[in-house]
Amino acid sequence: MTEEYDFSTFSLDDFSSEPEESGTVIAESDPRLPNGAALAVVDGDQAVRDYLAQQLGEGVGAAASLSELEGRLGMGPVVVVLGPSCTGPSDLAMVERWSRTNPEVGSVLVTSELSTTLLQTALRAGVRDVLSAPIDQMQLIDTVQRVAETLSAATPVAPSTGAPTDLGELIADDGERGTVLSVFSTKGGSGKSVVATNIAVSMAQRSTKPVVLIDGHLQFGDVAVMLKLQPQHTVADAVSQIDKLDAGMVRQLMTEHADSGLLVLPAPMEPTFADQITGPQMVQLVDIVREFAGHVVIDMPAIFNDVVISLIEASDDIVLVAGLDLPNIKNVKIGLSTLALLDIPRERLHLVLNRSDSKVKLDVGEVERTLQIQAAARVPSDVVVPISVNKGSPVVISAAKSSVAREFETLANRFMDGAELREPTAQKRRFFG
Question: How far is it, in rounded angstroms, from Cα 345 to Cα 373?
Fold first, then answer.
């Protein structure tokens, strides 16, 4: 019988790390998880495995090592919860290989002591999230469910063997480089893509330089739908040619938004393509785009991974979007702590409170004090937002006089040089040819 522990004070350091035999490696799919995903825990210590499994409930598989688990992959989506014995270089190298060859596998690392180095190394290896002990049971379960939502049931794909060419060989840096603005959230459903598309369109309407919107949500991006575009090319096409891409070629891969002149590079059509795209490749792509664009806006997924971290580190500014509810605020606080561990300066962070006038008995001022950051924008609730999404026409165009549109325009102006601003015009501006 498993010994009972006081989970509120439990620390993984209470146990030794003696390898022992495990039980069932991967159980059948867990009905509590999306995409028919299964759930497994891995650690060399039986007591730690038992604790993690007990936190997650019944039907959880277990393994003493990653190599023991490897032979059971390829049978469908699985979330792997890694214990503190899996933080060594060889284990993280195996996780990195899984992240490239097995899109149906997602991993979460639980560690006794979280450091900046471990966080960066784990996330760059493809670990979807890193949690530190003592474990918050609800946070662990929420993280596992969120990772399961991102998994693909597709068959494994072969890793790319082509080494990216040095950027200096591709393009000449003979002009002022554009700025990069990443729009990020720590929780899905916060309105991040709405914020990203409206900021980008507002910039494109007012800027004398080209503005580019890249959909960095590589698995389930919505930018093309929100702008009612029918793109011929995506991020996957650009990355597949990264060894020979130049500024002129990448411009030809973009789709122009007719009403604003915004240039858009949408997410791949198939979620499985996301696992073939690396953080360095995305940064290289953005660097090429910066050669001709005055501003590059990137819509990011609500998860920390190699691509997201690489793009955040390469960004001049980060817009952090939060809804006005307790789960959103909790996740934003965690996200701010993670960004601090990544040494992202606070002055590069801009908090946007979406649906800020919702009558949910949360005071905006109290939220700002809790997060220790003042909101750069407070976007009110308005029926024009869902209407605009369903029409495929951003609020700054379809309801330009609304309070929501004015807030987006003020936010967009925050990231633009006053010298380049001009009054928006109904005339379509083209940047091709």
Answer: 12
